[in-house]
């Protein structure tokens, strides 16, 4: 079983910055992708950014150039540095990881979510 603990959310004014952190623990083996999703009220959950073990990154178009995802493979940590925040970035942000066990089956896990609120 894999557990994820997020931290770093909060209230910030437009144009400000926040850094989200997520620590993975438990049966962490062959961790493949780590990422951040977000869900605003009344909207579907969307992928904000992801990063592979080889540091290949992918970003939602609307956050490119403002958000940076990074990971610490040795400590199973993933970060999301968010700059130039906009009110439309307001959402609950969820950490997500995926990988596969030695016998081949895959796994994934979600964090509990952390609220990010950007005031105008």
Please outline the helices and strands.
Layout: E1 2-7, E2 10-13, E3 18-26, E4 31-39, E5 46-52, E6 57-59, E7 67-72, E8 77-82, E9 91-100, E10 106-110, E11 114-119
Q: In terms of quaternary structure, what is this?
A: single chain
C-alpha Rg (nearest Å): 14 Å
Portion of residues within helices: under 10%
Low-confidence stretches: none
Q: What distance separates the N and C termini?
A: 40 Å
The largest sheet is: 7 strands, mixed
What does this structure look like?
By secondary structure, this protein is mainly β. Helix content is 0%, strand content 59%. It is built from no helices and 11 strands. It has strands at residues 2-7, 10-13, 18-26, 31-39, 46-52, 57-59, 67-72, 77-82, 91-100, 106-110, 114-119. The strands form 2 sheets. Strands 2, 4, 5, 6, 9, 10 and 11 form a 7-stranded mixed beta sheet that branches. Strand 9 (91-100) and strand 10 (106-110) form a beta hairpin. It is elongated, with a radius of gyration of 14 Å. The termini are far apart. The model has no long low-confidence stretch (mean pLDDT 95).
Question: What's the short version?
Answer:
This protein is mainly β and 120 residues long. The protein contains no helices and eleven strands.
Based on the model shown, name its key terms:
120 residues, 7-stranded mixed β-sheet, 59% strand
């Amino acid at each position: 079983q894999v557990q994820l603990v997020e931290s770093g959310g909060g209230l910030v004014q437009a144009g400000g910055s926040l850094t989200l952190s997520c620590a993975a623990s438990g049966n962490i083996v062959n961790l493949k992708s780590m990422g951040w999703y977000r869900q605003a009220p009344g909207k579907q959950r969307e992928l904000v950014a992801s990063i592979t073990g080889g540091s290949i990154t992918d970003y939602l178009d609307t956050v490119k150039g403002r958000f940076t995802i990074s990971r610490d493979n040795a400590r199973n940590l993933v970060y999301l540095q968010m700059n130039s925040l906009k009110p439309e970035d307001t959402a609950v942000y969820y950490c997500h990881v995926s990988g596969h066990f030695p016998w081949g089956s895959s796994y994934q896990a979600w964090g509990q979510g952390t609220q990010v609120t950007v005031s105008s």
